[in-house]
Amino acid sequence: MQPAKEETKASDGSLLGDPGHTPLSKKEGVKWQRPRLSRQALMRCCLIKWILSSTAPQGSDSSDSELELSTVRHQPEGLDQLQAQTKFTKKELQSLYRGFKNECPTGLVDEDTFKLIYSQFFPQGDATTYAHFLFNAFDADGNGAIHFEDFVVGLSILLRGTVHEKLKWAFNLYDINKDGYITKEEMLAIMKSIYDMMGRHTYPILREDAPAEHVERFFQKMDRNKDGVVTIEEFLETCQKDENIMSSMQLFENVI
User: Fold this and answer.
1) What's the CA gap between 96 and 253, in Å, rounded?
2) Topology annotation, domain 78-161
3) The whole model's pTM is what?
4) Looking at the chain, which terminus has fewer C-beta neighbours within 10 angstroms, N or C?
5) Is there a common fold for 78-161 and 163-255?
6) Per DSSP, what are the bridge partners of residue 109?
7) What is the pLDDT of residues 18-43, one digit of tens each?
8) Inter-axis angle of helices 128-138 and 184-198, to 10 degrees?
9) Strand 108-109 versus strand 146-147 pairing type
């Protein structure tokens, strides 16, 4: 496989910024709207690895994929509509769909599957709680199952969305009870679940109290009116203006 080109790498965004930790104010001419990522870049995402690991290296033609789409249970709404909804190409959607169908013949992913995926990719820690929170963020209607459409729409935001889109998704992840606000307890629960999953193999080595310290620092900055909760407006404004927060939250880059 050819190494990823430098210009591709430059637009390969993590959840809240870029892997190089370049402050947004210092970026010149980087387009976030429709960056094209190589397969190599995509394969850094655990969910993409899980899906594509089950697909055969040789691709099928579009007619085969369209046939699959028309016959599978819980079938997606169609490649063209999904391509319009996401920032994946038709060929990428075909590969993702084949893998999704191989791994989930019913056309649905449940929470136990998410826990299995993340326990495999993070064997050094305990991924159970983080997988639970991440699953709920993908499961928009809260019915305990994720359809292929919801799965790829979420992945599209996380891998190729604008900074604003990724921040809105992150807010939804932190808002555990989905009441439209983030409490300090919710933020700590998410942060702690990430540290628990990463185990002792993070670099630099993290102290036991690191999650609480990070949350305290973030929350003091985000809760602008000091009412004990963070709104979506406070979250977006603070994150986009504070380069330290944007850089610190890069931990998400390694855990999607």
Assistant:
1) 20
2) Recoverin; domain 1 (1.10.238)
3) 0.72
4) N
5) yes
6) 146
7) 333 334 444 444 333 333 444 444 54
8) 120
9) antiparallel
